[in-house]
Amino acid sequence: MTEGVQGVAGSRVQWPAVRPEVVAEVVAGLSARLQKRLDGAAAKLVERPVERTGEDWRIAVDEESELVLHAPGGVVAASDDVRCGCLLAPACVHRAAAVTVCPLADGEPPTEQAEAAEPTEQAEQAEQPDRAEPAVAADGSPAAAPVPSPGAPQGDAPAAGTLGAAERAAVDQLHRVASAALAAGVGGTGAVLQAELLRAAHRARLAGLHRPAAAAVAVVTRIRAARSGEPDHRLADLVAGLRELLGLSTALSAAAAADTAGPGVAALRGTARQVYTAAGGLRLYGLFSEPVLTATHAGVLTWAVDAGGGLHTMAEIMPHTDAAAAAPQAVGAGNRAVRLGDAMLSHREFTRAGLAVQGATRSAAGRLGAGASVRAVRAAGAAWTAEPAARLWAEPPAAQVARALGAAALPPEVRPAGGELLFLDVTLLGAVPYGPGGEPRLLADCGGVVVALRAAHDHPGLAHRGNLALLATAPGLRLRVIGRLERSARPELRLLAVGEPPSPQPLEARPLEAQLQPRPPIPALALPADRAGRVNLGLERLQTADLALPPREAAPPLATPPAGPLPPATPVHLLSRRVEQAVTGGRAVLALGSAAARGDRARLRSAGLATGASLLEGLLATAVDQSRDVFGRVVADDHGAFAAAWLAAAWYEEELASALCATAWSEEVPGNQP
């Protein structure tokens, strides 16, 4: 069967994925002359029509030459799988342009291979409960850490906790190339420099440095998204990726220089596969499910709570090769059966039911294993207002925010399950202008703190935005919600699920004065019985009939913006915009604006941020400080000092933003009261 795919400029999801090491190998085979033409060739190739025949993707380069990508399971796994019919092949620019256009594959095996290997893997897990599984990120998406192939060279065998010669060389190369990418900026990090970073990542992976290797691959993916203008690109994600990559390489270099050993070095190395340990018997109660949507994968992540209040996850995430089908695939995954023992219920059904599990296995991040030894049967669920789920809402909001901020600083493979989630009781205030720009936001009162509620995902194929718009029509509605903390100078939450709140105090239990006062009608949820008082906002659409609204004349008045003086704004943006400018424009662009930044340094000092002013001054000084030869030409260096200054400023800005976010959720902050 032949499937025609029309190429769209700036889109790479219609192409097969490619292993990072394949990109590095193919690009390295080009001559210096062809490397200079690579970016232009890739821009032309992405506009060419693509035809898929089985496991082959075919692109007509010209009237006489055809490019064929053999991708079993949708992944190009070897350089020999990229074939071109031109005279210069295999050292032609067409092969390199093709792997540059293709999205990068993660560490998961292709779909067909994974399904074929599943019985064997389950049998191994039954015999070895501590076996390892491919890593999965905290949000449920497949982790970027690749899995080393069997028999791959691992270099020397250093003592536990120390770095060997192969690891030190890999760290040095990774840090050098990452610094060069930072100095070049997004515009200057073309396909050749991206391939060098992928080669360094592959070398680090073979040396056992899985966490830095995964960070490098993630940085290349985000640079590609920035250069092509993909709609899901966020500059903050790219800044965070570079900060993590340079931070890991700097910390490993420091450990190598000091020749230190310990668990800290092992944490910096990371692991390629999650280790599942025996968890015994578990009584699980479903909480909610959320869609997972990335450039290469789509599916669903389901959350559950055990009898002791611990959180667990189960994922149903599969690769996709078509952006248009990604959202329907994610929504449809909610109707697929939970892969746990012999349980015969879907993910969406499990959010309102329970499971009794025997022989359970669990990773450090809370993901449940599905080995052959696991037994599970359907059981009764629990309301959010009943134990054990109710204890999740008992923690004060400020403590939950502190916990979420702490969890965000941990690596995904060791981050506690649900560490980033907030469980809050809120009262909707309506959609009002909010924030510096005055955009309409759905506001809610959370125990005296005004919180802006945002959609967890902006994709139009998901139900988040429509549900949020409908909730905005019901000011006064009391809800029990689950969401992810959005780090901001004002309290913000990305909604994942909503449910019915605890029952109000009975009339007879109130004081006599309160009993005599008439109770105004307020909105309430009127969900069907099969929804068990909760809604998965990304998978299920609320209807107008699901809201019991009072008559228009009896409805409570619309909310007004928070009263009272707002807290003085901390000018952290003066530092963060320079940090971001270095990422987008590179060292040269940052050097051009050094003279105009004198006022920024003065404003930072006047706001009490003397450390931030010093870090900004150091960053600009290193950007300008470049040696020149007798002809006035810039002498190339390793950009080490510039990368170190940028990393210090980026980490300071990160910690300052976290502190401001924690302060924003305090009831004592002026302007937080509704």
What does this entry show, briefly?
This protein has 19 helices and 22 strands.
Explained architecture:
The model is unreliable at 4-13 and 108-160 (pLDDT under 50). Helix 3 packs across helix 4, helix 17 runs antiparallel to helix 18 and helix 18 (610-624) packs antiparallel against helix 19 (640-664). Helix content is 37%, strand content 20%. The strands form six sheets. Strands 1-3-4-5-7 form a five-stranded antiparallel β-sheet, with helices on one face. A five-stranded antiparallel β-sheet has the order 12-11-10-13-14. The protein has a five-stranded mixed barrel with strand order 15-16-17-19-18. A hairpin with a 2-residue loop joins strand 16 and strand 17. The chain is an alpha+beta fold and 674 residues long.
Radius of gyration: 27 Å
**What is the general shape?**
globular
Major sheet size, sense and barrel closure: 5 strands, antiparallel
* Strand order across the largest sheet: 1-3-4-5-7
Oligomer: single chain
User: Mean pLDDT score, rounded?
Assistant: 83
Unreliable stretches covering 5 or more consecutive residues: 4-13, 108-160
Separate helix tally: 19
Distance between the termini: 61 Å
What is the total tally of β strands? 22
Feature tags:
five-stranded antiparallel β-sheet, 674 residues, single chain, alpha+beta, 19 helices
Task: Note the topology.
Layout: E1 2-5, E2 17-18, H1 20-28, H2 32-36, H3 38-45, E3 50-53, E4 56-60, E5 66-70, E6 75-76, E7 82-84, H4 93-101, H5 111-127, E8 132-134, H6 165-188, H7 191-206, H8 210-228, H9 235-258, H10 263-269, E9 273-275, E10 277-293, E11 297-306, E12 311-319, H11 323-333, H12 347-350, E13 354-362, E14 375-379, H13 397-408, E15 421-434, E16 439-446, E17 449-455, H14 464-471, E18 478-486, E19 492-499, H15 512-516, E20 524-525, E21 534-536, E22 547-548, H16 573-592, H17 598-606, H18 610-624, H19 640-664
Parallel strand pairs: 2-6, 17-19
Antiparallel strand pairs: 1-3, 3-4, 4-5, 5-7, 8-9, 10-11, 10-13, 11-12, 13-14, 15-16, 15-18, 16-17, 18-19, 19-21, 20-22
